[in-house]
Structures are given as C-alpha cells and as structure tokens.
Design brief:
By secondary structure, the protein is mostly helical. The chain is about 75% helix and about 0% strand. The radius of gyration is 15 Å and the shape is elongated.
C-alpha cells in the first residue's frame, strides 16, 4: 500500500487553503463579495479582515491551518492503511 507524504500533503493543503482565503479577501475588498465568509473566518483567524493587512494575516493563518490539516489527514491515512 502506498503511503502519503506528510510534508507534500501539508504543503499542498496549506497553499490551496491560503489561496482561497487570499482570493476571497481580495474579492471582499473590491466587490463586497464574500464579506460574510471573511467575517466568519475572522472570528477564528485573529486579524483577518477585509483590508490588505488583514488579508495578509488571514493568508498566513490559512496556510498554517491548511498545512496542519493536510499533515493530520496524511498521518491518519498512513496509520489506517498499514
């Protein structure tokens, strides 16, 4: 059985989730689309608001959150598929 690479999946999840947080943040600034999502995520990611500095902070939080989730998913998968 193939094992998942913890670092690769963590990095992939981190990049994908951070990109989503970043893009929705930009959309909320320029089009007012996604304001509810930014407010919801801002309640969990301290400092994430629909400002440029807030988007930067949210992107960092999103990368860390996504990377941790990716590593956990790969680790659990590897443990279950021995």
């Amino acid at each position: 059985m193939n094992k998942l690479n913890l670092k690769a999946l963590g990095l992939t999840f981190g990049i994908v989730w951070a990109s989503g947080i970043f893009l929705v943040g930009l959309a909320s600034i320029f089009t007012n689309w996604g304001l509810d999502f930014v407010a919801l995520m801002g309640s969990m990611y301290i400092g994430y608001t629909n400002t440029f500095s807030g988007i930067f902070i949210g992107t960092i939080w999103g990368f860390c959150d996504g990377a941790i989730c990716g590593v956990l998913i790969a680790w659990i998968y590897n443990k279950l598929c021995k």
